[in-house]
Amino acid sequence: LSSRAVYSNHWALKVSGGAREAARLASRYGYVNLGQIGSLDGYYHFYHSKTFKRSALKSRGTHTFLSMDPKVEWVQQQEVKKRVKR
Amino acid sequence: HTWTEPHFMNFSDLMWPSMWYLHCSDKNHRCRSEMNVLAAWHRGYTGKNVVVTILDDGVEKNHPDLVQNYDPLASYDVNGGDDDPTPRYDISNENKHGTRCAGQVAAYANNSHCVVGIAYNAKIGGIRMLDGDVTDIVEAKSLGIRPDHIDIYSVSWGPDDDGRTVDGPGPLAKAAFEQGIRKGRNGLGSIYVWASGNGGREGDYCSCDGYTNSIYTISVSSTTENGNKPWYLEECASTLATTYSSGAFYERKIVTTDLRQRCTDAHTGTSASAPIVAGIIALALEANPHLTWRDVQHLIVKTSRPTHLKAPDWKINGAGRRVSHLYGFGLVDAEGMVLEARKWKTAPAQHVCTATSDRKHRFIRAAQPVQMSTLTDACADSFDQHVAYLEHVVVKLSIQHPRRGDLQIYLTSPSGTKSQLLARRAYDLSSEGYENWEFMTVHCWGEKAQGEWTLEIHDNSSLLRIPEMQGKLKEWTLILYGTAKPPFSTLNPHHSQSKVQESGMDMEASRAALYQSHLELTEEEEDYLGPCHPECGDQGCDGPGADQCLNCVHFSLGSAKSGRKCVSMCPPGFLADTVARRCKRCHKGCEACLGRSQNQCTSCKKGWFLHQEANTCGTVCPAGFYADEGLKHCLKCHQNCKQCIGSAEKCTACKDRFSLAGAMCIQECDQSMYLSLETMKCEACHPTCQTCTGPGKDECIYCAKDFHLHEWKCVPACSEGFYAEEVPGLPHKACRRCEENCLSCEGSGRNCVRCREGFNLLSGSCVTNHTCVNADETFCEMVKINLLCERKLFIHFCCQTCLLAG
Q1: Which residues contact B357 (CB under 8 A, 6 or more apart)?
Q2: Which of B43, B383, B537, B650 could lock B663 by a disulfide, CB 3.0 to 4.6 Å apart?
């Protein structure tokens, strides 16, 4: 059996319009903007405190509205990956 | 093997005497200093001004062996969101991993503490990212922290090595890799060193780990003190090189720093190997800070050596380099790396050529391999895509399969180098298959890209499976990475001129060939005074290896571009030219040959078959021949067969005027004739038959003209109680029985003309002549109104009585 996905309360987004637009989106839809993802231009890290930290189901509701915002080019709820030390 | 220590150094560090993989202080053990780290140190390279970070569970920054080299700018805590990578301490010391890896790279030397790091003057940092939920964001952030400050990212983790996981970087981590190699190190490219995997015991294969299988990572495997395969080693074609780590219980492990300011001599696993390579790369970067991420991979390929490493699959690729699925190009050589780095000229731009993209669906049947070949010019017409000299080769596959672990995949290059992209994984029962999975091989590094590539997919079922459930190849794409020009020049004009003059025109062929490949090494190097390899000839050598001879006792093998070495006999696929004392490559597919032409093969390599009449080797046999796997020959099919498979008698297509019966081709006979299996001649059918299977009158297939088929015989007229009827699809009529109680009928069964005794003829049917006792007027009225006497089912229903009654 393949292991089922575990969804976290973190989102990755590609936003057109830079940091200011990312801040506006976070505020409008109730997220905390944790900033740009590393050195990937236009990619931002959002966090939602009122969503389950780990869930077997993808979140919907307001998260759907976020994905529909015209300034959001791509959005992905983050899955928890199993990583092991070698 | 060396028993002496030419570059002896001593340090005050307590565990320095136990660092068996660096020097030989223990006279009871064989020296294992083949990584030549001391020699690199001796040349002055200790990792100065090079920055390494460890992506792991944190680094104990105040460890006495690390504090002096600790670099806060090379550190970050992704789990905690701050700059301090200090591990979380617990009773089990779970988070010791990063600190152990850091010590291997950059433990400070001569401080009377634990050990000496491979790059003991390099800057070391830690990125704490494994002590929490790992997501694509966490990985992408970690792989892209301060890419202009950090030179080397050393990573010793990955997806589960349980033999059933197929997982790799998500879109953000992939983007981080691409960004790192394009923009990191101010455009030279970040260097990612990766532990190849720890799932040997679970039958895992590292091509199922998308990180270690990536072209952007330097995938490192491990060997034990005695050159054996450790229990945890995963094989795959993307492993670039190997280093010592731990092994069996009677072989020594790696010594390094440990959590809580301690030291350990029990570090084990592939993570003991990757940081060693990270340290050696740090030495090379000190020797030449302008090396790009690809230059580093070229240097590793060029300098790593099989030494004494035991693997069943060592082979020489088309560029003359020995490579294995266990160890890549072999044990890393620190001195070789710094020497090559010093004079390395940046490799030409990387070109990417999509050689083929095939979306034709093909079923993968159990025990019947699917083989596809594609001929490519390696984008020769496109100046920015042309790949003449190979680096990485990627095959992107989409496969549906009921049990993924049963699959095995191989790729053969135009030079005949066969690498295994996937081995059987007994624990992988998944039915998810592979969706656009990229399998990567480094085994063709340096070879020419142009020519025929062959992909083979085997489905070797280990357990019972529903036979109807077959795998299906949906798509495959071959992507070639490399350069249009040679990645390094093999000829130094200054040296070539002087050396050639010195040697004169009559320099023997083997020496000339070897000479050319070593011209580049002569620059800046001291004369070698040690013993030469036994295969070296009277001209001496530049070093102890068989690839460092100036001429050979027996034969030289390889090419000027890729380097040559001396061998006692030529390997399969080569012709021993005793005059020139060279191994000449036979034509592709030939195992032994009389010359280099296509039609001079005397035997063929595995998977190729000798056409004895043409003396050629092919992967498929021509029409009229079949491939004999045992003999590796194309043998003739039976004279009646046009094509056959497996043996001469197993025909799959027949010549004209023969037709296939099972696996035999039998002669087709004229009409009214049949093939006699006794005489194997066509003989006449019985006169009543048009076609037949034998001479008897009951062996007709079709009847002759004006004959009807009656009880499997052909008769001129049907017997009494039968009538002749047309049958769709038959050229003649067949006799059918008349209706029950009817003695004779005409044209159809319902048209009876004579009934059995006790029955009367009524509207072509035979009805009983018995009368009903209770058929009163009302009853007969009901029979009349409902027309029961006209309906076959009710014809016996007192019709006779009612008719008689009027």
Answers
A1: B475, B476, B477, B478
A2: B650
State the Cα–Cα distance between residues B246 and B695, nearest whole angstrom.
80
Quick one: DSSP state of residue B230?
P
Instruction: Give the integer Cα–Cα distance in Å for B783 and B797.
Output: 8
Which residue of A lies nearest to B162 if distances are taken between CA atoms? Answer: A84
B141–A12 C-beta distance less than 8 A:
no
Residue B303 and residue B292: Cα distance in Å, rounded?
Answer: 16
User: Measuring CA to CA, which residue among B116, B117, B109, B112 is closest to residue B14?
Assistant: B112
Task: Search chain B and give the residue with CA nearest A80.
Answer: B135
Which neighbouring-strand residues pair with A33? A46
Calpha distance B125→B602 (Å, rounded): 59
**pLDDT tens readout for residues B621-634:** 888 899 888 888 89
Contact B675, B669 (CB under 8 A): yes
Q: CB–CB of B191/B280 below 8 Å?
A: no
How far, in whole angstroms, is CA B121 from its chain's centroid? 41
A4 touching B (Cβ < 8 Å): no
Strand partners, B262: B258
User: What is the nearest CA distance from B356 to chain A, expressed in angstroms?
Assistant: 30
- Chain B, residues 124-183, CB within 8 A of chain A, namely 130, 133-137, 139-145, 147, 156-161, 165, 167, 170-172, 175-176, 179, 183
CA distances from B398 to B167, B404, B459, B473, B595 (A): 15, 12, 15, 6, 41
Give B633-670 pLDDT, tens digit per residue. 899 999 989 988 888 888 888 888 888 877 888 888 88
Please name the residue of chain A whose CA is at the shortest distance from the CA of residue B164: A2
Coil, strand or helix: which one is B448?
A: strand
**B574-577/B582-585 β-pairing:** antiparallel
Cβ pair A8:B133 closer than 8 A? yes
Contact A47/B at CB under 8 A: no
Q: Hey, what are B332's tokens?
A: 């890393």
ipTM of the complex model: 0.95
Q: Annotated catalytic residue: which of B97, B298, B401, B710?
A: B97
> What is the Cα–Cα distance from B643 to B566, expressed in whole angstroms?
45
B530 burial via Cβ count (<10 Å: 0-12, 13-18, 19+) = exposed
Q: Is B518 a catalytic residue?
A: no
Active-site choice (B219, B245, B271, B415): B271
- What would the 3-class secondary structure string for B51-119 be? EEEEEECCCCCCCCCCCCCECHHHCEECCCCECCCCCCCCCCCHHHHHHHHHHHHHCCCCCCCCCCCCC
- Burial grade of B115 (CB within 10 A; 0-12, 13-18, 19 or more): buried
Please choose, from the candidates B313, B327, B324, the residue with its C-alpha nearest in 3D space to the C-alpha of residue B245: B327
Q: How confident is the model at residue B704 (pLDDT cuts 50, 70, 90)?
A: very high
For chains A and B, CB pairs below 8 A equal 93
Judge whether B88 is closer than 8 Å to chain A, CB to CB. no
Contact A33, A66 (CB under 8 A): no
Count how many residues are written for chain A: 86
Q: And the tokens for B421?
A: 């992209």
Question: What is d(CA B461, CA B386) in angstroms, rounded to the nearest whole number?
Answer: 40
**How far is residue B745 from each of residues B231, B555, B576, B756, B765, measured CA to CA in Å?**
88, 97, 91, 12, 10
**Distance of CA B310 to CAs B1, B32, B243, B271, B331, Å?**
14, 15, 13, 21, 11
* CB-facing half-sphere around the CA of B782: CA atoms within 13 A: 8
Residue located via tokens 């003209």:
B705
pLDDT at residue number B94: 96
CA-to-CA separations, B442 to A50, B238, B296, B419, in angstroms, rounded: 47, 5, 14, 9
Would you say residue B707 has pLDDT above 70? yes
Active site residue B603: no
